[in-house]
């Protein structure tokens, strides 16, 4: 399922509805050879090229007025190597299809984000992540990838082949070339027990280090205008499987998290004064629950309520300060924030422009319901994040530029030098990359 739409006159929109592009033409290659031909013909016509996945980025990272590559025909598993513990998959494969196919083979990714509508290349190229004490983003689980570069070459990259490209291209922002296949490390499927329970914000922040240390995957949601959070701990389990019952699952995940939540958002958008009251009711409506299931059924959940999002990675040690400042901001301002703030963590990794590159990180995500004014809230939140040397998620709303990134990413120059080498004519350039990487 693609969440992007191609409208009349070839307009392209992202899932959040906040980015619109009008490409000169769209191409859906059915093979790597066809993709190479599309890149070469774009060069002959002097057009730039961008690949767009399912449009789940809130930035204009995939927008182009040149050639838009749609990867929906580049899908499926190429190879499973059980001895090496890897799976090689075509770049346009939706994460949902990958997760389901792996489960049928008795395999799983170690960690994943909280939705699975994105394509594997779109998710990894923007640094999509879940939460984990030792296990990191989806891109950090890549062991090799195939990349079509600006001159039409097809590069195979891994820790031992084109290692400098591999270091950067796992989260390549679409700036180094078009990813055509990805090899992920996988492991035999396992069970996770999820424990969800409400907890006062003060307690979560006071005990954050302990909650992080005691759980393989810890995250929490804070409801602005309240002192309440909902916490979620996922840990490996010997079983037995005890999935959420069908009725309870429908009630909690569909009715409360999508249906009632959507209605509450509509009310809040129409009458902002009702938001704090709704938030208090929402935070109380959640009761503790526990269930045990295979990984993708625990890590991911459907998101039908459309929203806009900003997320920053801050040093893990700074997370309590950041949340306290955010709470002060909401309490003191006239802001009406109807969406919870999500907090997750990741270990340091070795990917050049990963938001967790070289430092243990905590992620703080702020959201607003689509159609509500979000600028003043996001601007004020961004001031807090940047004061803590925050690094914004590449696929979520932010206002940072290359000068800022050169200050918060020690290896920023390494990435731009590689881009100069692989794409000297800026075949894969667009407005977003010009801003975040510099001209």
Specify the biggest β-sheet: 8 strands, antiparallel
Structural class: alpha+beta
Low-confidence stretches: none
- How many extended strands? 21
The spatial strand order of the largest sheet comes to 17-14-16-15-19-20-18-21
What's the assembly state of these chains?
single chain
Q: Tally the helices.
A: 14
What percentage of amino acids are in beta strands? 15-25%
Overall geometry: globular
Radius of gyration: 21 Å
Question: Helicity level, as a percent range?
Answer: 25-40%
Average pLDDT value? 92
Distance between the termini: 35 Å
Explain this structure to me?
With 439 residues, the chain is an alpha+beta fold. The chain has 14 helices and 21 strands. It is globular and about 60 Å long.
Task: Give the gist of this structure.
The protein is α+β, with helices and mostly antiparallel strands. Helix content is 32%, strand content 24%.
Write the layout of secondary structure elements.
Layout: E1 5-6, E2 12-13, E3 20-21, E4 25-27, H1 32-44, E5 49-51, E6 67-69, E7 77-81, E8 86-90, H2 95-104, E9 107-108, H3 120-125, E10 142-148, E11 154-158, H4 163-169, E12 178-185, E13 187-188, E14 191-200, H5 201-206, H6 208-214, E15 217-222, E16 228-237, H7 246-270, H8 275-285, E17 289-293, H9 295-299, E18 307-315, H10 319-332, E19 341-346, E20 361-369, H11 375-387, E21 391-392, H12 402-408, H13 412-422, H14 431-437
Parallel strand pairs: 4-6, 5-6
Antiparallel strand pairs: 1-2, 2-3, 7-8, 8-12, 9-13, 10-11, 10-12, 14-16, 14-17, 15-16, 15-19, 18-20, 18-21, 19-20
Helix pairs in contact: 10-11
């Amino acid at each position: 399922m693609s969440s992007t739409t191609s409208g009349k006159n070839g307009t392209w929109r992202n899932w959040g509805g906040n980015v619109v592009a009008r490409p000169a033409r769209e191409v859906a290659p059915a093979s790597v050879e066809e993709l190479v031909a599309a890149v070469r013909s774009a060069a002959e016509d002097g057009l730039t090229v961008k690949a767009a996945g399912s449009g789940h980025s809130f930035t204009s990272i995939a927008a182009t007025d040149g050639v838009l590559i749609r990867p929906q025909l580049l899908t499926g598993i190429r190879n499973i190597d059980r001895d090496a513990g890897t799976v090689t998959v075509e770049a346009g494969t939706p994460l949902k299809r990958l997760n389901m196919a792996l489960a049928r083979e008795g395999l799983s990714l170690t960690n994943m984000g909280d939705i699975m509508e994105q394509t594997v290349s779109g998710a990894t190229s923007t640094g999509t992540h879940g939460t984990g004490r030792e296990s990191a983003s989806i891109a950090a689980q890549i062991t090799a990838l195939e990349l079509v570069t600006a001159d039409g070459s097809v590069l195979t990259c891994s820790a031992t082949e084109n290692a400098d490209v591999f270091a950067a291209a796992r989260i390549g922002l679409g700036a180094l070339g078009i990813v055509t296949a990805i090899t992920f490390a996988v492991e035999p499927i396992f069970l996770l027990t999820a424990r969800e329970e409400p907890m006062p914000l003060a307690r979560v922040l006071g005990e954050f280090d302990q909650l992080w240390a005691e759980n393989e995957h810890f995250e929490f949601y804070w409801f602005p205008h309240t002192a309440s959070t909902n916490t979620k701990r996922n840990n490996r389990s010997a079983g037995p499987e005890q999935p959420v019952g069908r009725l309870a699952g429908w009630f909690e995940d569909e009715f409360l998290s999508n249906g009632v939540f959507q209605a509450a958002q509509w009310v809040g958008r129409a009458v902002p004064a009702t938001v704090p009251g709704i938030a208090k009711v929402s935070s109380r409506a959640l009761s503790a629950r526990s269930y045990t299931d295979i990984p993708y059924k625990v890590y991911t959940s459907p998101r039908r309520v459309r929203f806009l999002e900003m997320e920053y990675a801050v040093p893990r040690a700074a997370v309590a300060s950041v949340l306290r400042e955010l709470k002060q901001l909401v309490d003191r301002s006239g802001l009406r924030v109807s969406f919870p703030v999500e907090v997750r963590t990741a270990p340091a990794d070795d990917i050049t422009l990963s938001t967790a590159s070289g430092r243990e990180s905590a992620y703080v995500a702020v959201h607003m319901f689509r159609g509500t004014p979000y600028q003043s809230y996001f601007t004020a939140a961004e001031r807090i994040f940047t004061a803590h040397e925050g690094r914004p998620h590449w696929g979520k709303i932010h206002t940072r530029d290359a000068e800022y990134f050169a200050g918060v990413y020690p290896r920023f120059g390494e990435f731009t030098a590689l881009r100069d080498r692989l794409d000297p004519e800026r075949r894969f350039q667009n407005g977003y990359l010009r801003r975040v990487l510099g001209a």
